[in-house]
Amino acid sequence: MHCMEYLRNFCIIAHIDHGKSTLADRLLEFTDTISGRDLHEQVLDNMDLERERGITIKSHAIQMDYNFEGQEYTINLIDTPGHVDFSYEVSRSIAACEGALLVIDATQGVQAQTISNLYLAIEHDLEIIPVLNKMDLENAMPEDVKDQIVDLLGCEREDIIEASGKTGYGVDQILERVIRRIPAPKGDPEAPLQALIFDSVFNSYRGIIAYFRIMNGSISKGDFVKFVSTEKEYYADEVGILRLKQEPKETLGTGDVGYIISGIKSSREVKVGDTITHVKNPCDKAIEGFQDVKPMVFAGIYPIDPDEYEELRASLEKLQLNDASLTFEPESSAALGFGFRCGFLGLLHMEIVQERLDREFNMNVITTVPNVSYKVVTHKGETVEVHNPSGLPDQKYIDHIEEPYIIAQVISKSNYVGSVMNLCIDKRGILKNQVYLTSDRVEISFEMPLGEIVFDFYDKLKSISKGYASFDYHQSGYQPANLVKLDILLNGESVDALSTLIHRDNAYDFGRRMCVKLKELIPRQQFDIAIQAAIGAKIIARETVKALRKDVTAKCYGGDITRKRKLLEKQKKGKKKMRQVGNVEVPQQAFLAVLKLD
To answer: Residue 254, exposed/middle/buried by CB under 10 A (0-12, 13-18, 19+)?
Structure first.
């Protein structure tokens, strides 16, 4: 049994693209955890998608051995996703550590997500080690960025380690600091077992494998254990530590990070943040901070070919094994047939799910306009949660609608402040706070509705700030909103896939733009098609796609005009009849165009 005082657990906190996965590679190389032949870039990011986008989607953990001053130390690195959608996963990974490397790109400086994850780490009392990465680049500004770090952390300038994940410069210093500064795990080896699940992965042969960190007590192979929040009980078929491959062990003790395999088939049974304990001698309370992850953004996903409905269901189920935060339920739409209403943690999460459906399962899908979940309060005082505009009760029963609000923090160069503020105010934001971090960097906080950033907020922010602004948000609760349901009617029939919930002030403009756009996209038929935007029974905009006409009067040359009239009247009747029978095909592009309305 190894001694707890020679154990270190730490994680790495950084904004997207500040180089933490590359730095992790160097640490693994330096401690001889990976031999040269296994080495490829970003060892821990094992999804193709993670590599391509250069983001970490899942948490990972890996154990290294390091000989320092003649003493063997065991160091566990828990890699965390940096993106705002996965902040709950990050908070659990942070709770499993005693220290954190704060990695900041010397060319970029401090950015929004770094700050929010840093606050999480400080809340959990972690020892923070600041690292200035990418020192090998010519456009590094170490002095300026050091000023920012000192302001942020209140540490000494000489505490900041200069490093480069690419060349490996400074890695030895980082390891030395990890061992000297980060405290050994505290906990009682004799107490009942209490372990925190910080991640789970799916293995097609062994079922769901849960990663955990033991806070108190120990766990051995064959123990009968219980997961506290789901109240399910299992035998620990195998426990072990995480190297590049999983290494089975007989027993893991307090402070260890490891995995447990117990034949779990459904990802719903393993929840990140849950506590594992023994059935016979349970711990008295679960580890704090557990919450069920709630999806924030909803969208309908429909197969392009209606026959692929069952395949889509199977693909989503498999995806859910790998990504427990994805939720879905069947729904049907008159325009698109059968599909699923899916819930995502945020916009990035939604994009990733779409990409993975396409890549890993070869599914072609249509996604409807994303929207957030609303709380509808009826006149009777009942509250209904609505994830889909077409599920909204009739206007006459609704007392008011509440929508989720967020606090958004934008960090930007000070010369873009005006345009950033305009953007936020256009999106119904209320300015809360403005702080100058340095003479030319400013942090602006807004309170704004989540529904407004779902559309195209992030792209616009990046373009008005020339890519400099970084953005982060967290939910702050629900507030009543003046929302109306905007329907799009084709020949008087509502197209449910195009209906949206929108603020009353924006409804007229949006409805008009939508009609104009659809007029361009809907092909002409043999009859007139009326495209209308309506709020309840009130039509607010209309466009008409004119019918294709055949010249029926060609054979009437000369003679009386009434003969031509008669033929045209006859044609008109035929068109009218056709319009009642005929249905309007809405092409695929129309649904996608609505997402890109600008």
So the answer is: buried
The mean pLDDT value of the chain amounts to 77
Same fold across 375-481 and 484-595 = yes
Cβ proximity of 103 and 27 under 8 Å = no
Identify the band that residue 57 occupies on the pLDDT scale cut at 50, 70 and 90.
very low
Which overall architecture, per CATH, does domain 484-595 show?
2-Layer Sandwich (3.30)
Q: How confident is the model at residue 41 (pLDDT cuts 50, 70, 90)?
A: low
Q: Are 488 and 512 in contact (CB under 8 A)?
A: no
Dihedral of alpha carbons 270, 276, 282, 284, sign: negative
CATH number of this structure's domain 4-181? 3.40.50.300
pLDDT in tens, 106-124: 777 777 667 777 877 887 7
What's the pLDDT tens digit per position in 130-162? Answer: 888 888 777 777 788 888 788 777 778 877 888
**What is the structure's pLDDT at 149?**
80
For the domain with range 375-481, which CATH number is right: 3.40.50.720, 3.30.70.240, 2.170.150.70, 3.30.365.10?
3.30.70.240
Domain ranges of the chain: 4-181, 194-278, 297-368, 375-481, 484-595
Complete DSSP assignment for 82-141: -SGGGHHHHHHHHHT-SEEEEEEETTT---HHHHHHHHHHHHTT-EEEEEEE-TTSTT--
CA-wise closest residue to 95 among 231, 190, 5, 194: 194
Q: Per the structure block, which two tokens stand in for 57?
A: 């989607």
pTM (predicted TM-score): 0.69
> Which residues have a Cβ under 8 Å from the Cβ of 53 and sit 6 or more positions away?
none
Q: What residues contact residue 308 under an 8 Å CB cut-off, 6+ apart?
A: 363, 364
The neighbour count for residue 13, using CB atoms within 10 Å, is: 28
Q: Given a cut of 50, is residue 1 above it in pLDDT?
A: no
| Beta carbons within 10 angstroms of residue 209's beta carbon | 20
SS3 484: strand
- Buried b vs exposed e over 377-413: b needs ≥16 C-beta within 10 Å? eeeeeeeeebbbbbebeeeeebeebbbbbbbbbbbbe
Q: For domain 297-368, give its CATH number from 3.30.70.990, 3.40.50.2300, 3.30.70.870, 3.50.50.60.
A: 3.30.70.870
Q: CA 302 to CA 312: how far, in whole Å?
A: 8
- 390: amino acid identity, one letter: S
Is the sign of the CA dihedral 416, 421, 427, 432 positive or negative? Answer: positive
Instruction: Give Cβ neighbours of residue 193 (< 8 Å, ≥ 6 apart).
Output: 214, 216, 217, 218, 219, 223, 225, 276, 277, 278, 281, 283
C-alpha closest to that of 26 among 130, 103, 88, 94: 103
Class of the domain covering 194-278: mainly beta
SS3 at position 441: strand
Q: Which percentage of the chain shows pLDDT scores above 90?
A: 0
Helices (H) and strands (E) in the chain, counts: 14, 32
pLDDT in tens, 498-555: 777 888 888 888 888 888 888 888 878 777 788 888 887 888 888 888 877 777 777 7
